[in-house]
């Protein structure tokens, strides 16, 4: 995951590298690197505390949600979510950060990251991170942990829908929307009329 300042430029580049990037003076990584060990981050957002939340699409078996910290390794391709990937057993896990939440193929196959809901329209969702699975059409909300290395406090199912949820959006009032790749329609997360 890269972090650059697009409002400035230096060394003939169309951007500047922030001076507090973790690898700016380390030959191990490109100086633009903020964190690494992700397979295929599919959407990210910031929670009310300013923490970066990323949904990462897995390879074979697991999808994951992580709270990203500067300079940390989130494990790919040694681990897929919190499970050894290569090798399948007894992989070296020291220094690798586990996700706050993961789910397997029985729940879905391609995570779509979302937003923290921050509107009183649905008070039960206020402060919860909403995300979905593109393939299964499932939508969840989770209580974010206090620390980025702790698991999610609780996860709630918001149902399974006949949608290919490819992205989320959030308006100025804190309401969350989702887009259906199949129909091209946009839906607002709302209370059930039933």
From TrEMBL:
Record domain Glucose/Sorbosone dehydrogenase: where: 16-156
Q: Please give the SUPFAM superfamilies that the UniProt record associates with this protein.
A: Soluble quinoprotein glucose dehydrogenase (SSF50952)
Q: InterPro entries under this entry?
A: 6-blade_b-propeller_TolB-like, Glc/Sorbosone_DH, Quinoprot_gluc/sorb_DH_b-prop
The superkingdom of the source organism is Bacteria
Put simply, this protein is called Glucose/sorbosone dehydrogenase domain protein
What species is this protein from?
Answer: Leptospira interrogans serovar Copenhageni str. LT2050
Lineage of the species this protein comes from: Bacteria, Pseudomonadati, Spirochaetota, Spirochaetia, Leptospirales
């Amino acid at each position: 995951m890269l972090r650059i300042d697009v409002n400035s430029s230096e060394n003939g580049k169309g951007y500047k590298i922030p001076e507090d990037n973790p690898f700016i003076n380390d030959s191990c990584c490109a100086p633009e690197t903020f964190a690494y060990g992700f397979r295929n981050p599919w959407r990210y957002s910031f929670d009310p505390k300013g923490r970066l939340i990323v949904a990462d699409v897995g390879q074979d078996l697991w999808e994951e949600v992580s709270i990203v910290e500067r300079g940390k390794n989130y494990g790919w391709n040694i681990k897929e979510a919190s499970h050894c990937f290569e090798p399948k057993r007894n992989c070296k896990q020291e220094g690798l950060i586990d996700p706050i939440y993961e789910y397997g193929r029985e729940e879905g196959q391609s995570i779509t990251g979302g937003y923290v809901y921050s509107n009183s329209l649905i008070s039960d969702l206020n402060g919860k991170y909403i995300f979905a699975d593109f393939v299964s059409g499932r939508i969840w909300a989770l209580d974010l942990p206090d620390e980025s290395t702790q698991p999610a406090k609780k996860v709630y199912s918001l149902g399974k829908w006949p949608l290919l949820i490819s992205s989320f959006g959030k308006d100025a009032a804190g309401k969350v929307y989702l887009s259906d790749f199949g129909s091209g329609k946009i839906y607002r997360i709302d209370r059930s009329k039933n």
